[in-house]
Every structure is written in structure tokens, then in C-alpha cells.
Amino acid sequence: MEIKKGVAVSPGISVAKCLVIDAEEYRIPRREIKASQRLVEVQRVRNAFRDAAAELASLEAGRGGIEERSIKDMFAVHLRFLHDRSLRKKITDLIQSEMVTAEFAVSSTLREIASHFTKVKDAYISERAADIYDIERRLLKHLVGEKREHLQELTEEVVVVAREMSPTQTAGFNKDYVKGLATDAGGRTSHTAIVARSLGIPAVVALEDLTGSVRGGDTVIIDGNRGLVIINPDDETIKQYLEYAVEFVEMEHRLDAIREKPAITRDGVKVTLLGNIEFPGEAEVVLQKGGEGIGLYRTEFLYLNRQTEPTEQEHYEAYAETVRVFRHRPVVIRTMDLGADKFTQSKRFVREPNPFLGLRSIRFCLQNLTMFKIQLHAILRASVLGEVQIMFPLITNLQELMQAKMILGDVMEDLDEESIAYNRRIRVGIMIETPSAALTGSLLARDVDFFSIGTNDLTQYTLAVDRGNELVSMLYSPVDPAVLRLLRTVIQDAHKVQVEVNVCGEMASEPEYVMLLLGLGVRKMSLAPPMIPEIKQIIRSVTIEACNRVTRKVLGMNSERQISIYLRDAVRSVLPEVF
Ligand code: PEP
Ligand code: MG
């Protein structure tokens, strides 16, 4: 039995056999196959060569031909290898003679060639070994990627263990079979973590070298409450965890019982609790958990996991399905937040050097007007069905906001010309998730109906810490004094000009931060649906006066650690039975 500690990102307990997904690390074990499977593996190699060459060609085309000579040479060398029949034959011969998997044949053949290269005295040739490793990685990516598709075809319950998982892959999990997720990489607010939480799959990330310690088929416990992964637990541990899992579910059910009760503090202040969703089907869960509407619909998930872009009608149907669940309640539709870690299929190979600082989100929309207008058209069409609101993500300055609003105006004119009904007075808001927006809230406020603070990105951009990078996850905290000062500024500015302010980042779903947010003046939050009952319970157990005291104290502290410990103790003192 081995216990690994990581970062808990989605609560719950699961015990199941593990399925290891080989990823970037590519420790490909020698696995033998049956004679009857040889042709299948040979075909997989052919497909991987074909797809890798196509990927490389599209990558080269996407770079627009202005690259340095060395990069052009590199593409040429890689493509020559990928079109080299003798190389492919060497690999497929190995499959036929040794009866091994395609992955193993690719890896061992290319590594053998690379090791020959490194022994050559000529620097130019020996440096080509790096190219061979690159080609190996590219081919394996296609082979492993192909295997990931098979996650759809599971027939028994598993816990997925991987180096990393993209949000798209996680979104494609079949919840009936995938009972838990553990990854070497990732952070608490990475989109993968957010999706796992939305799906209600217990998950732990940032486990560093977990994939090196487990083998497919090992029994694994995922403790998504404490951030633990236990490999090959003994019988006693399994028994304890199965009991704990039952207790946890019972506690969740007890909390669900407060569904009908309002989120009102002990001194009578009403707080509105909404839900964050990625898929229309989740709106029902928000309702079941007692949410009063949708505060953040991450519509970019409509583009993921599919080969073609969604049509206007598909957009409309997704929005209509969501609005039908909350007909007289707000449904805030965030326009697509593509880029960074979320790509459409056609853009998935066009990688930017610093994607989180690149063509992401509203910037992407403003450069892809056809796509943007299709989405706005559908949102406006759905606006007559209920209380639809529009929210623009990642606004960094007033010009961007005005441009986005101008496009919205153009689409409204199109609808007028087409005689299609829509809500002319649709509420338009922006996400405050960059320090620049937080610092200029008073300038932006005049042109919007509401702010929604995206603490996930605001923390990342304020502290210069990639939210999904486990190597710096200890530096990532929404209660760092710098982030808190920005939060205070935005909330105060919003109150001054009477613009509604909501918090929809994961911070609002964390029990230990609720008192602080209430003390900062937040009265509306949008949460991961499973967290609504617990957060409501805390709200019902505190007074605003106590929250104000906690917040005053915290704003006087100078270290994140001190603040975190203090906030945890504060919430424990009001709700000891939950913590
Ligand atoms: C945020 O950044 O806090 C946010 C809610 O948006 P997302 O997590 O989708 O980036
Ligand atoms: Mg964001």
C-alpha cells in the first residue's frame, strides 16, 4: 500500500481498479498482443504516421511561412521521417515478429535510432536525436490519443490515472464508469478540475509522479476530500474508506435537505446563490441543489469534443434547454472563452508560446467575428425564452468592451432585419478576471449592467502563476494579499456606481472563503453545483457582522498563509460539524 498526497479538486471518495492513460511522459511498457491482433496494431501505426504528418503539415501552414530557417528545417526533417517507408516498416516488422503493441514498437524503434545518433561524433547528426524523440512523442500522442477515445467504450468502473487530462477529455468521461480521476499535473482551478467537479467525479491533481507508481489494474482509492490517492490499499483501509464514502454521501444528502431554505444570514441578509455550468444538462443539477439560476454558463464547451463548429441552431438549442430549466430566473451566458487550454478541433495544433497571455477569450472572438456573431445571434434568439443575460470574458480595457458591445449591436440589427424577436434590453455584463479590469472597474462600470469576478483567472494574472501548473501551485491563492486588495477595489467601485457584482470563480465554492466574501460586500455568488448546499449552510450559520470582523482582520494581515489558517479556523468555529 502506498499513499500519495496531491491537491483535492473534486470532493468524494472512490475505490476502483485504475486505468492508466499514458501521456506526455510516455513510459511505454512492453505489452504483448495476441497473434490475431497484429494487423490491428500495424494499422494503428499507419494511422499514427498519417495523422502525425497531417498535424505537422497543418502546424507548418498555420505558421504562415515567416519562420526562421532552423524551424523550417526542423519541420522538413520531421516530415521526412514521417514519410519514410523503411522506418514504418521497421516498426511494423517488430509488431509482427515480437507481437508487441504499436506504442511499444514505435517507442523502442525510435529510441534505438536516437541512441545511434547520439553516439555519432558529428554535432549536427547527434543533435538529430532530439528530433527523433520529438517524432516519437508526436506518434505516441496519436496512439495514446486514439486510446483515450476508448474511454467512451468502458464496460467496468475505473479510476482514471494520467499525467494530465485536458478539459475536453475530462468533459467526455462517461460518468457511469469513470468513478475518479488522479493526475500528476494540474491545479485547483484548472479547467480539468472544474469539469471534474461539475461532473461530480472525485478528483485529486498535482500528484507529481503518480503515473510512475501505479500499473493499470491496481486498486486505487481516490480521496477527493483530503487530496489523497492510495495505491493497492490493504483490506482494512478499503473497509474504512467504503464506510467513509457512505458517511460522505449521507452528509451530502443531509445538506441537500436545505435545498428549499433561503440563503439568508442569521442577521437577515439575503445572498443569491447561482450555479456554474459547462453543459445544458447541468442546469437540472443546479436546480436540484437549490441554485437560483445560472451565474456562469461556460459556452466554449459547445465547441470541444467535436470535429465541426456548432451551428447557430445548435447554440440556440443548448441555450434554450438551459433557459427552460430556469425560465424566470437569470441565466448568464458567457460568450465563448476559447484559447489557452480550450481549443476547437481545427485550432488544436496551433499552439501559442504563452497561450494564457495570447489570443484567448474575447480577444479570440474579436478576431473571429463570424463565429462570434453566430453565437450572439443564438443568445439573442434565446433571450425571449427567459431571463438571459450576456457576459463577456477576459475584458482588459474599455475599448474591448465597446467593440464587443458594438458587435452585439450589429447582430441586433441583423435580427431586426430578419424580423426575429429578442430582448432589446438584455442585460450585458463583463467578467473581471484581469488586474487591468479590476483596477479600472469605475471606467468599465458605466457601460455594463453587472460585473462577475472570475477569481480563477484574476488570481493567475495577479500573481503571475499559471493556474494549471502544479510546479507553482503553492504560489496560487485567491487570498493572497495582492488578490484581496484587487477584490476589495472592484467590489467597492461597483458599489459606488451601483453596478451589481457577483463572484463566479472557484473561490466562491470554497467553504473557507465564504465569510471573507460576505465581509467584502458580496451578495451574489455562482458556484460549482455540488457545493451549493454546503455554502448555503455556512451563509445560514453566520452573521454579516461576524463576516465584516473576519474581513477587517484578514485585510490587516500580510501573509497568505496566515490568512488561510485564520479563515479556516473562522469557518470551523461556526460550523464544526462540517469541518
Ligand atoms: C474565472 O476565471 O474565475 C472564471 C470563472 O472563468 P474560467 O474558470 O472559465 O476561466
Ligand atoms: Mg476565467
Unreliable spans are none
Largest sheet: 8 strands, mixed
Q: Give the distinct bound molecules.
A: phosphoenolpyruvate, magnesium ion
Lateral arrangement of strands in the main beta sheet: 1-8-7-3-4-5-6-2
Helicity range? 40-55%
Number of separate helices: 22
- In whole angstroms, the N-to-C terminal distance is 27 Å
- The whole-number mean of residue pLDDT values reads 89
Shape: globular
Q: What gyration radius follows from the Cα positions, in whole Å?
A: 25 Å
What would you call the structural class? alpha/beta
Beta fraction: 5-15%
Please report the total strand number as a whole number.
16
Give a short summary of the structure.
48% of the residues lie in helices and 14% in strands. By secondary structure, it is of the alpha/beta class. The protein has an eight-stranded mixed sheet. An eight-stranded parallel sheet has the order 15-14-13-12-11-10-9-16.
3D structure, described in words:
There is one protein chain. The protein is an alpha/beta fold and 579 residues long. 48% of the residues lie in helices and 14% in strands. Helix 14 (398-417) links the parallel strand 12 (387-392) and strand 13. Helix 1 (38-62) runs antiparallel to helix 2 (69-82), helix 1 runs antiparallel to helix 3 and helix 4 packs antiparallel against helix 5 (123-149). Magnesium ion binds next to helix 17.
